[in-house]
Design a protein that fits this description.
Layout (H helix, E strand, L loop, with lengths): L1 H24 L3 E7 L3 E14 L4 E3 L5 E2 L2 E2 L6 E2 L4 E4 L3 H26 L3 H47 L5 H44 L3 H27 L1 E3 L4 E6 L6 E2 L6 E4 L5 E7 L11 E6 L7 E9 L8 E8 L12 E14 L1 E3 L4 E3 L2 E8 L2 E7 L1 E3 L4 E4 L8 E4 L11 E6 L11
Parallel strand pairs: 1-24
Antiparallel strand pairs: 1-23, 2-12, 2-16, 3-11, 4-10, 5-7, 6-9, 7-8, 9-11, 12-15, 13-14, 13-16, 14-15, 17-22, 18-19, 19-20, 19-23, 21-22
Helix pairs in contact: 2-5, 3-4
């Protein structure tokens, strides 16, 4: 009897263990999971956009002439000053060569006048001036020596005067020293007169050298200078005329249309081509009427061109046309692209434009389908070990498929979703796949 009771207990325990094991490892529902991560995100309004040019530039020559050579093609980028076409330059080149020849002739004629008289005459007058300068130096040296002798004689006379008064020398010896002073003074006077004479001679030779160097052709030189100035003016006019036969790009930009070909006549009223400046281009975005309240001047924008789908460019909202198109229900927003090296875009190109309306720090964005509603409250199922746990949350809409948690959950929390709606509080759950919705790293999707 005892053995039978123990057997019953053993069988019951085994069954209970099997039930527990089944519930733990085999009785679960398969669900999708989403791991919550905090990120800085952008919220925006996306619409289609078209590259628009406010004004295209018509490029025409300043003169009427035949196009001899074209150096451009459509849809090419050119730099300001780049040569685009040559007109009839043959006559203009001939006129420039003749004007340059006249200028050269007048230049050398003026140089000949300015270098006369001939070198031998000029050399003689220069040597005379140098000789007079040397005479001045000699006279100055003689004056210095005479002055030194006079100083010595005066000292000697003073000394002998003292000795004479003491009776140490005779009157005769004293008188000799006085005569020596007079002789020395006369020598100084003669040296001064000589220095004055040589200075006068030096100044005369200097003036003579200047006169010889300048010559007597001042009137001729002035006349020749006038001729040179006139020929220089003719060269400038001829260069301007030749330059008018060369068509250059007025700005940096793209050539959109060729209007004339080589052999045709171009004029100020008949332009050769049409072009536009890249910096003048903007994108016209068509935004839905109900979004008008969210669009503001200065907002950042992200642009993806259909021609360059793998790269995003940036810009700013610069104008809002608050007039709704009755047919499309949209209004126009002008977006100016930021300068970006290497970007080639032309009027008519289409793009997706996302205008950034909100920037959120440390946001928790989750797919809308993970949110359940009950009694006017929102909640999610959180994976707690192997079980689903019901967690109350508060949310606000983020876009059409996502919501923003205003009651944040811990980072890396896994929330659950079951399309068959079998997930309940405290049921066993196994995540078989994880959702990824993008835009959690700050990019627009």
């Amino acid at each position: 009897m005892f053995s039978k009771k123990r057997l019953i207990i053993f069988i019951a325990s085994s069954i209970l263990l099997l039930v527990i094991t089944y519930n733990l490892f085999f009785n679960f529902i398969k669900v999708s999971g989403y791991k919550i991560q905090k990120h800085d995100v952008l919220n925006g309004i996306t619409s289609t956009g078209v590259v628009t040019s406010p004004e295209e530039i018509l490029v025409a020559p300043d003169v009427t002439s035949v196009i001899s050579k074209r150096l451009f093609s459509e849809d090419t980028y050119v730099k300001k000053g780049q040569i685009l076409a040559y007109l009839n330059t043959v006559g203009a080149k001939g006129a420039l060569e003749q004007a340059q020849s006249n200028y050269n002739a007048n230049y050398y004629a003026l140089r000949d006048l300015q270098t006369e008289p001939r070198l031998p005459v000029l050399q003689i007058s220069k040597e005379q001036y140098n000789s007079a300068s040397e005479d001045v130096n000699i006279s100055q040296d003689q004056l210095n020596k005479a002055q030194a002798k006079l100083n010595d004689a005066i000292l000697e006379e003073t000394k002998l005067q003292t000795l004479y008064k003491q009776g140490a020398i005779s009157l005769r010896d004293y008188e000799k020293s006085q005569y020596s002073v007079k002789d020395a003074q006369e020598a100084v006077n003669i040296a001064k007169r000589q220095l004055l004479t040589t200075n006068i001679a030096k100044e005369e030779s200097k003036q003579n050298y200047i006169l010889v160097e300048e010559g007597t052709k001042k009137e001729k030189i002035l006349s020749q200078k006038s001729s040179l100035d006139a020929s220089k003016g003719s060269v400038i006019v001829a260069k301007d005329n030749l330059d008018s036969q060369i068509l250059r790009a007025p700005v940096d930009g793209y050539i959109s249309d060729r209007l004339l070909n080589a052999g045709e006549v171009a004029s100020p009223s008949k332009p050769i081509l049409r072009m536009f400046r890249v910096e003048d281009l903007y994108i016209t975005a068509k935004v839905e009427e109900f979004d008008i309240k969210n669009i503001k001047l200065g907002q950042d924008a992200v642009i993806v061109f259909d021609a360059y789908p793998d790269k995003a460019y940036t810009g700013k909202v610069t104008a809002i046309v608050k007039s709704v198109n009755n047919i499309t229900g949209t209004f126009d927003v002008k977006v100016r692209l930021n300068p970006q090296k290497g970007l080639k875009y032309v009027p008519g190109m289409t793009s997706d434009v996302t205008i950034i309306t909100e920037k959120i720090k440390n946001a928790e964005i989750i797919p809308r389908k993970y949110v359940y509603e009950e009694n006017d409250h929102n909640f999610v199922y959180v994976l707690n070990g192997n079980k689903a746990k019901k967690e109350k949350i508060t949310i606000i809409p983020f876009d059409n498929s996502r919501v923003l948690l205003t009651s944040p959950l811990p980072n890396n929390t896994v929330i659950l979703y079951d399309e068959n709606k079998k997930v309940k509080d405290n049921v066993n759950a196994k995540v078989t796949d994880y959702d990824s919705i993008g835009n959690t790293d700050g990019r627009i999707k």
